[in-house]
Amino acid sequence: MTDIETFYELVLVALLAVAAGRPQELKTPEDYGLLRSSSVTNEDGSFQYGYETSDPSSQDVAGQVKQFDEEKVGTVQQGSYTFTTQDENGNDVQVRVDWVADENGFQAQSDALPQAPEDPNAEAQAAALAKFSQIEAEKNQ
Question: Taking the complete model, does pTM exceed 0.70, yes or no?
Answer without folding.
Answer: no
